[in-house]
UniProtKB/TrEMBL annotation:
It is found in: Cell membrane. This is ABC transporter permease. Keywords: Cell membrane, Membrane, Transmembrane, Transmembrane helix, Transport. CDD domains: TM_PBP2. The keyword Disulfide bond does not apply. Residues 1-166 form the ABC transmembrane type-1 domain. GO terms for biological process: transmembrane transport. GO terms for cellular component: plasma membrane. It comes from Helicobacter pylori. It is a multi-pass membrane protein. Belongs to the binding-protein-dependent transport system permease family. It holds the Pfam family BPD_transp_1. The chain crosses the membrane at residues 12-36, 42-59, 94-120, 140-166.
Amino acid sequence: IAGYFGGKTDAIIMRIMDIMFALPSILLIVIVVAVLGPSLTNAMLAIGFVGIPGFARLVRSSVLGEKEKEYVIASKINGSSHLRLMCKVIFPNCIIPLIVQTTMGFASTVLEAAALSFLGLGAQPPKPEWGAMLMNSMQYIATAPWMLVFPGMMIFLTVMSFNLVGDGIMDALDPKRAS
């Protein structure tokens, strides 16, 4: 909406996103979870809420590039409504960067969820969660260090896997990058 309409709409929406960007994401997540209460659902809602500005900027920049192209102008001249232009003409051509950003965002979501559970704000016992497993195994670091290794290794492997999948999708969908 911000990229399509521009002007005051763009300025207002993007200033709100800038305010959210100004604060560290983990701080915003902790504030939201503290207000809503510690649970896995609230942690995921908070992580999703904090991820909005990144996607908003990405969509806005893609829309700004697409809305000036000839096929969009031709569709506008043919009498297409704003809704049709946004949903049927512009958005399908902006979806590739969103797909890539989403897969890359899964990695940061795993890290943030593990951090929240490590702090006791994520999944609550008896639900198993890697961050909580790390926190609970801290007391055994001298006698059983492997209790720290396995949850940490799983977090690492999951994050690395999402990053590699995101890279692969980017290579597959962006012919200029795949060389």
